[in-house]
UniProtKB/TrEMBL annotation:
Protein name: Spore germination protein
Family of the protein in this entry: Belongs to the GerABKA family.
The organism of origin for this protein: Clostridium collagenovorans DSM 3089
Taxonomy of the source species: Bacteria, Bacillati, Bacillota, Clostridia, Eubacteriales
Superkingdom of the source species: Bacteria
Any GO BP: spore germination
Length: 486
């Protein structure tokens, strides 16, 4: 460590206390409680606001002070005197300091060469609430919180399997952020697990404040606009991913879990797809895919047709578009870019403002400013329709990271269409498709199962078949246990 050197624990409680006070000077929230029992000095150290004081009083201090054996041994303290449920011994000062900085309590007793770490973590936390950004009509309403133990418990409730594994990690040279990876041992994709463990072992950073930090450090291609790691705030989504052979990573202080590997179709699936009847889910999923195509290509198609290929549209429609654009001082390309930029500003303002004000700003921006822009002749009415429809269809996508990626691709296609018309649009789409084909997520093709297709994997692709047909796990995941239903 860089903060303090490794040091063995002294047999004098006062020496250990002096050392810690010197190392962690000028910290007003650290409590040092000295007391004596059986003629021996003892001290407990904890962070005010992060430790359960009642537990310390009733199960640590009181039993020790009532003890009447001046030759108490380390084993007696551990096994018979201290009655707290979770106590462990450490022989290294570094481990002890890390423990109480994480919310536990550190205890030293004279004549003992070991210290005791008592699990007393009890900091303020947000209770388990509803998932705000992944709301569903049916199914669970629970969402992750910022406390890692709450989150692991929410997942374990749904995976009551002896082969379920939860491996702890600590990230950050200074932050010492707790994390854990979760998987089912006989189902998990072994190749993806080894890749994840290797990349996690290579993380060397001073602080991890959120799971997004780890996402950015372990993804396959940092230059791609498309997310290669799935982020979710729903424990049922994590459990479903584990049953498919994927791996989840949960980080303390973050309400979002990481799921790997992730494929592009995973980002277009909603939990409601599996809770609704299969015909309804299939229809909604097809509508979702059509909406994504509209949001990606409509502005570019508008630019290409109005600038280069007006002859391919019906005459009456061409006259209508020309009439609506009469008096607009900007070419179609610049008109689209102005509206895209304005819409990006409006959406960012709505996200950052409080909900009540944000809704008002959305109405003002969407109606009054849009109508004023048309009346002033800055944009055409059909442009308002194109951008509005594009924005609405973009947010049908359940994952916000994909929304951002689609926005960047849409701008790229608009630029290509402004240069080469429909040829530019088709070339732009082909470049995006080539990029997606080359992408991987922890050894799994990003477009699976669309590339190297297996007919059985299409039961949960463009449509969602009835649950009785989900006999096999996804073939592209290469799970050891391939069957989930007889």
């Amino acid at each position: 460590m860089k903060e303090f050197e490794k040091k063995l624990i002294s047999t004098s409680a006062k020496e250990n206390l002096a050392y810690i006070k010197a190392v962690l000077a000028q910290n007003g929230d650290i409590v040092f409680r000295e007391f004596s029992f059986d003629g021996r000095n003892a001290v407990i150290i904890y962070i005010d606001g992060m430790a359960d004081k009642l537990l310390l009083d009733e199960y640590v201090i009181q039993p020790l002070m009532q003890h009447e054996d001046d030759k108490i041994s380390s084993e007696e303290v551990f096994n018979t005197v201290v009655t707290a449920s979770d106590v462990r011994k450490v022989d290294d000062m570094t481990k002890g300091i890390n423990a109480f900085l994480s919310g536990d309590t550190l205890m030293f007793i004279d004549n003992l060469t070991e210290a005791y770490v008592i699990a007393t973590r009890s900091w303020p936390n947000r209770g388990v609430g509803q998932a705000e950004n992944e709301a569903t009509i049916k199914g669970s309403k629970e969402g992750f919180t910022e406390t890692i133990r709450f989150n692991t418990a929410l997942v374990r409730r749904r995976v009551r399997d002896t082969r379920f594994k939860l491996i702890p990690y600590v990230f950050g040279e200074r932050s010492k952020s707790d994390a854990c990876i979760m998987y089912i041992d006989d189902i998990v994709n072994k190749k993806a697990l080894k890749l994840l463990q290797k990349r996690l072992a290579n993380i060397d950073i001073d602080a991890i404040l959120d799971s997004s930090y780890i996402e950015h450090l372990i993804e396959d291609n940092i230059n791609s606009p498309f997310p290669q790691i799935q982020m979710t705030e729903r424990p049922d989504v994590v459990a479903a991913a584990l049953y498919e052979g994927r791996i989840a990573l949960i980080v303390d202080n973050s309400p979002y879990a990481i799921i790997v590997p992730a494929t592009l179709p995973n980002f277009f699936q909603s939990p409601d797809d599996y809770y609704e009847r299969w015909l309804n889910s299939s229809l909604v999923r097809l509508v979702r895919f059509m909406a994504i195509l509209i949001s990606l290509a409509m502005p570019a198609l508008y630019v290409a047709i109005t600038s280069y290929h007006s002859a391919i549209i019906p005459t009456k429609l061409a006259y209508s578009i020309a009439a609506s654009r009469e008096g607009v001082p900007f070419p179609a390309f610049l008109e689209v870019m102005i509206m895209e930029f304005s819409m990006a500003i409006l959406l960012e303002a709505i996200v950052r403002l409080p909900k009540a004000i944000g809704a008002t700003i959305g109405i003002v921006g969407g109606l009054i400013i849009g109508q004023s822009a048309v009346s002033a002749g800055l944009v055409s009415p059909i442009m308002i329709i194109v951008i509005s429809l594009t924005t609405i269809t973009t947010f049908i996508t359940p994952n916000y990271d994909v929304v951002t990626a689609l926005r960047l691709c849409r701008i790229f296609l608009v630029i290509a269409s402004s240069i080469l018309g429909l040829y530019g649009l088709m070339m732009g789409l082909m470049l995006i498709l080539i990029h997606l084909i080359k992408l991987e997520s922890f050894g799994t093709a990003y477009l699976a199962p669309m590339v190297n297709p297996n007919i059985r994997d299409f039961k949960d692709m463009y449509i969602k078949l009835p649950l009785k047909y989900f006999k096999d796990r996804p073939k592209y995941m290469k799970t050891p246990d391939k069957y989930r239903q007889k």
